[in-house]
Design a protein that fits this description.
The chain has 192 residues and is of the alpha/beta class. The chain is built from 7 helices and 5 strands; from the N terminus they run βαβααβαββααα.
């Protein structure tokens, strides 16, 4: 991981059903990042619950006894990361989920993310493209959209020539909305 001198916020804005949560879940499993997956139901959309969960994960990861307050846990993790010349990434998936049902809680979480000033802490947020107000300095991650030819070449590389029917490729193209990660996960599922 790289280091920097300023707080980082990245947002991955992609349409619904194109693999945002799958990608975030993959990163959590592979990299063991602290994370928060928001759903529109239950308490997961509440700001206090968000702060508590993230603080507890940071405290556990960095063996911080008794430091379960959000800003305190982030500050201590930031200092440890500075000492070891590394960066901590915190995954926040589905930030837009809350507002789909009339809640204004995402505004509170967005305010927290805007207030964060720790140089070694990066928030990676996934949402639908409608979420525009994360932060003016948030870096939007975008990949060039995949074309139908890309899907055909990928299926050929995996040895799925029997799936090369134009209607299957067209369905994958429409469902993925051009998202490369969606195709990657579909390919892995097909191989199993």
């Amino acid at each position: 991981t790289s280091t920097g001198t300023e707080a980082k916020r990245f947002v991955y804005p992609v349409n619904a059903g194109t693999g945002k949560t799958a990608l975030m879940g993959y990163l959590v499993c592979e990299k063991k990042y602290p994370h928060y997956f928001i759903r529109a139901t239950g308490d997961t959309y509440k700001t206090d619950f968000f702060k508590k969960c993230v603080a507890e994960q940071i405290s556990k990861k960095y063996h911080l006894s008794g430091e379960s307050e959000f800003w305190q846990a982030l500050g201590t993790a930031d200092k440890i990361c500075q000492e070891h010349n590394r960066r901590e990434v915190i995954i926040v998936d589905g930030l837009d989920e809350q507002d789909r049902y009339g809640s204004q809680e995402s505004e509170k979480i967005i305010a927290l993310l805007k207030d964060h000033k720790f140089s070694q802490i990066t928030f990676l947020v996934s949402s639908r493209p409608e979420l525009q107000n994360l932060s003016p300095d948030a870096i939007r991650i975008a990949m060039p959209p995949m074309q139908k030819e890309d899907i055909t070449q990928y299926l050929e590389r995996l040895g799925f020539n029997d799936l090369m029917q134009d209607n299957f490729v067209q369905q994958l193209y429409e469902k993925s909305a051009g998202n490369t990660y969606y195709l990657k996960f579909i390919g892995e599922d097909l191989q199993q």
